Amino acid sequence: MKLDRVLQYSQAYNFFQWVFGKHAPEPGVVFLSQRRVYILPTRHGLIFGVALILMLIGSINYNLSLGYVLTFLLAGLGIVSILHTFRNLAHLYVSAGRVAPVFAGDTAQFELVLENKSDFDRHSLDLTCRGTKVSCNAPAHQHCSVVIPVKAGKRGWLQLERVTVDTRFPLGMMRAWSYVQPDMRALVYPRPDSAPLPPAHAEADAGDSVSSGAGTDDFAGLRPYQTSDSPHHVAWKSSARSELLLTKLFAGRTASELWFDWDSLPAGMLTEARLARLARWVVLAEERSLRYGLKLPGVNVPLGEGFPHRDRCLKELALYHG
Amino acid sequence: MADPRNAEPLPLPPFALLITGAALTVASHTLWLPYWVDAAAAALLIWRAIASIRGAALPARWLLILLTFGGAVGVFFSYRTIMGRDPGVTMLVLLLFLKLLETRARRDVFVVAFLVYFVALANFFYSQSIPIAGLMLLTVLVTTTALVGFSAPQRPVLEDLKTAGRMLAQAGPVMLLLFFLFPRVQGPLWGMPQDAYSGVNGLSDTMSPGSISSLSLSDAIAFRVKFETELPPRTRLYWRGPVLSDFDGRTWRVGLPQLRRNMSVEAAGSPADYEVTLEPHNRNWMFALEMPTRIPPNARLTSEYLVISPTPIRSRMRYEMRSYPQFQAPSGANPEDLAQALGLPRGVNPRARTLASEWRESLPDNAAIVRRAVEFFRGSRFEYTLQPPLLGENSVDEFLFDAKQGFCEHFASSFVFLMRAAGVPARVVTGYQGGDTNPVDGYMVVRQADAHAWAEVWLAGGGWTRVDPTAAAIPVRVELGITAAAPAGQSLLMRTNLNWLKGLRNNWEALTNQWNQWVLGYNPDRQREMLAWLGVRQPNWETMTLMLFWSVAGVLLLTGLWLLRGIRRGDAVQRAWLRFCDKLAREGLARARAEGPLDYASRVARTLPASEDSARAIAALYVDQRYGPDPDARSIARLKRLVREFSP
Question: B409 is in which domain, residue-wise?
Answer without folding.
Answer: 206-485
